[in-house]
Amino acid sequence: MKEQFARNISIARKEKRLTQEELAHMLGLSFQAVSKWENAQTMPDISLLPEISRILDVSIDKLLGYAAQNKRITIYEDEYQTQDYYWGTEPNKACYKVLELMPPTKRLKLLDIGCGEGKDAVFFARNGYEVSAFDVSDAGLEKTRRLAEQAGVRVNAFKADILDYRLDSHYDILFSSGVLHYIKPEYRQEIFDNYKHYTNAGGIHVFNVFVQKPFIAPPPEKEPNAFAWHSGELLAYYRDWLIADSSEIVFDCNSSGIPHKHAMTKMIARNELPTIRRGRL
Ligand SMILES: C[S@@+](CC[C@H](N)C(=O)[O-])C[C@H]1O[C@@H](n2cnc3c(N)ncnc32)[C@H](O)[C@@H]1O
């Protein structure tokens, strides 16, 4: 919580173009107080939160690392309200890769980032992983919990916005499908540094991301919170990790009822030290 608050207040302060000193002055505090918050040494007194939220024009939920409760920031919120599972209940093929690469022969902690209605998170839990999963959609999380309950497994499903949420404990496996395009370009380096930092040695990231191609028309769904990625960009954040697998595919999609195409980079990266890699060559 302290670390998330530290990052969020620092980002919000810079977006408002305020120095630590200016913010401290507005709150009637010394600049060291703000500096300590941003270094995750201390948290402000709870009574200061409304004033900080007002000055920085950002909700207290957001400052604390949780998505605002009432804001509809995903086009899927309505789709997830129905009984049917919009994305089905069959796991993504990449889930089987996780089983191959890191079978749960010991306790392995996995995080599904942007879990939607939970088909992948529940698959992992059924296979014996210790699963946490987050999404910004309440309806999606509700369905994730229901699917887990039906399968008789536990998934720690919680609400968070990928832009605000940062890891503060270690995982063995990070998994994300169809979600990373919600990360603004200017946040990417920091977010991937955080994901890598909190991944155990030997752990893996199994990610895919939509990429822009000049020969593919933009998708019919208009998503104001989505941002373009280009080929190779995801891999660039993993120069210091072993890329165990990567490919780029073009596929047909009918998600909005209008047939269209997507291009996607798929990547599996492993937290292996370069020296170990050299030893293997
Ligand atoms: C294409 S769906 C993929 C869902 C799931 N990963 C799957 O493959 O079934 C994208 C998901 O990202 C979630 N999402 C959108 N914006 C988000 C954000 N800012 N933070 C976290 N999740 C977000 C949506 O609610 C949606 O469930």
Keywords:
434 Repressor (Amino-terminal Domain); 281 residues; Rossmann fold; binds S-adenosylmethionine; 2 domains; alpha/beta; 12 helices; 7-stranded mixed sheet
In words, what does this structure look like?
The protein is of the alpha/beta class and 281 residues long. The protein has two domains: 2-63, 434 Repressor (Amino-terminal Domain) (Orthogonal Bundle), CATH 1.10.260; 76-280, Rossmann fold, CATH 3.40.50.150. It has twelve helices and seven strands. It has helices at 2-15, 20-27, 31-38, 49-56, 60-63, 76-79, 93-101, 119-126, 138-151, 185-197, 233-236, 274-280, and strands spanning 109-113, 130-135, 155-159, 171-176, 199-211, 242-253, 260-270. It has a seven-stranded mixed sheet. α9 links the parallel β2 (130-135) and β3 (155-159). It is globular. The site of S-adenosylmethionine has 21 residues, from loops.
- Give the SSE order as H and E letters: HHHHHHHEHEHEEHEHEEH
As a whole number of angstroms, the C-alpha radius of gyration is 20 Å
Strand content: 15-25%
Terminal residue distance: 42 Å
| Gross morphology | globular
Strand arrangement across the biggest beta sheet: 3-2-1-4-5-7-6
Please, what is the oligomeric state? single chain
Number of helices: 12
**What is the CATH homologous superfamily assignment of the largest domain?**
Vaccinia Virus protein VP39
